[in-house]
Structures are given as C-alpha cells and as structure tokens.
Amino acid sequence: MSAAAALAKSPVEGTLPASKYHVTFGRVVTSEWIKFRTVRSTVWTLGATFVVLVGLALLVAATTGSSDPGIGLDNADIATTPLVAGTGFGQLVLAVLGALTITGEYSTGMIRSTFSAVPTRTPALVAKAVVVVIASFVVAAVSTVVAVLIVKPIFSGTPHELDFGNDDILRVVVGVPLYLAATALLALAFGILIRSSAGSIFAVIGLVLVVGPILANIPVHWLNNIADYLPSQAGQQLLTIDPSQGPAPWFGFIVMVAWGVVLFGIGVFLAKKRDA
C-alpha cells in the first residue's frame, strides 16, 4: 500500500473528518433555537403573549356577552372583537422579543462568537428570523385557538356567535398569529439595523403605534394615504371585518411583510459590512 493510500484511509491522529463539523443551515437554525429557548426573556415574553391574548379575549367576551355591544357593529365585528382585543399589547411584547433576540447578543458580545462560527453572517441572521417568526406564530396561534375555545361557548346562542363559515371571521382568526409574527420580524429587522435594545424597541413602537395614528388623523389626504401603507395600519386590515379604506386585507398583510423583509435585508447587508 502506498503512503498516499495509507494516509487516505487513516486520518492523522488527533483530527476528525472536516465534514463531521460542516456548518449547514439546519445546524445554524438548531443553534439559534437553543440560544433562543434558553434565554429567560423568551419565556417571559412568549408567556406574556399567551396571557394577554387569552385573558383579554375572556374579559371582552364576558363583558360583551352580558351587555348590549352597542350600535354600529355587525355580528361578525362583535364576534371577532375578543380575538383581536389583545393584539395591541401582544405586538408590543413580541416587538420586545424580536429586538432582544439580536440586540442581546450585541450587548453581551456573543454576536462575535456567532459570526465567527458563521463567517458569512447571512445564514445566522436568517436562522434567527426563522426561529423568531415561527416561535411567535406558534404561540400566537395556540393563544388564538384557546381564545376561540373560550369565546365560542360564551357567544353560543347569541346573534354574534362565532361562525367559521363566515370567510371574514375565519380570516381574522388566521390573521391574528400572522400579524403578530410579522411584527416580530419587523422588530428583529430593526434590532439588526440599530443594534441597541432600547433604540430598536423605541423605533418599532414609534413606527407601529405613534407615526401611523398621527398621520392617519391629520386632515391631509396624501398623509392619510401614506399612513394606510405603514406596516401596522396595513397589517391590521387583515384583522378588520369590513375595512372602509386602505389596502385590501390580504394585500395589506403583504405590505406589512414587505416592510419586514426589506428592512431585514438592509440589516443583513449592513451587518456584513460592519464590525461585530
């Protein structure tokens, strides 16, 4: 046997085949999932999301079921109001989660280890987005299902009973977790761009809860049109039974996702150019 053949069959002592430790996207996602689920803030924020969505659904349904819901709302509006009651608080909580997922690593310096393990950086950031979006969607979906199970018997036998044969009601039920997951992606994108927990959370809350409502209430038509296509206003069309203005519900959600994807793409580009 030649020396070359012997070396090919017997690796040098103390070494392992390189392929055994090859960095694949699946392994990067697994790594990011381990980091994500072992951070205390993840448990608190996801738990708070569940409590807010379910708790407010129960409170609003119990109140509505025992009183006159008022004038100006049709039955589908009334039926879905408890299900969307917690989305305002829920998006704030998931905005914090999305931002902290990346800014926490910048503040502790762990991001240097992450980027050393994945030198191209893009797979690591995409893996973070996958983990954050899926986790947010799953928790919001479970919370919505639990809220439906609570609300349905309360409204049973009333004119505003939850009817899943109604396409608008079904759209709202599906839309709640989609909307909240898109919010988490938007927050992660701001986290990559700004790299500061406080700055990222402030930017997301400002864009979602401050800028949009201000522009929407200024009596200038073109400013109102801009407000309709800001991420939160556009995404909330998915949660509205009969939108009176702005984009159509599913198109509005596409607009919201586009905001998150574009900002995330810009963040990834800048992350590859910046020092960790």
What is this structure, in a nutshell?
With 276 residues, the protein is mainly α. It is built from twelve helices and no strands.
Explain what this protein looks like in three dimensions.
By secondary structure, the chain is an all-alpha fold. It has one domain. The protein contains twelve helices and no strands. α3 (40-65) runs parallel beside α7 (122-155) and α5 (87-108) packs parallel to α8. The chain is globular and about 60 Å long.
On the 0 to 100 scale, the average pLDDT is 86
Helix percentage: over 70%
How many E-type strands?
0
Radius of gyration: 23 Å
Mass-distribution shape: globular
Strand content: under 5%
Oligomer: single chain
Total domains, how many?
1
Kindly name the structural category: mainly alpha
The span between the termini is 49 Å
Uncertain segments are 6-19
Order of helices and strands: HHHHHHHHHHHH
Q: State the major sheet.
A: none
Please tally the helical runs, counting DSSP H or I stretches of 4 or more residues.
12
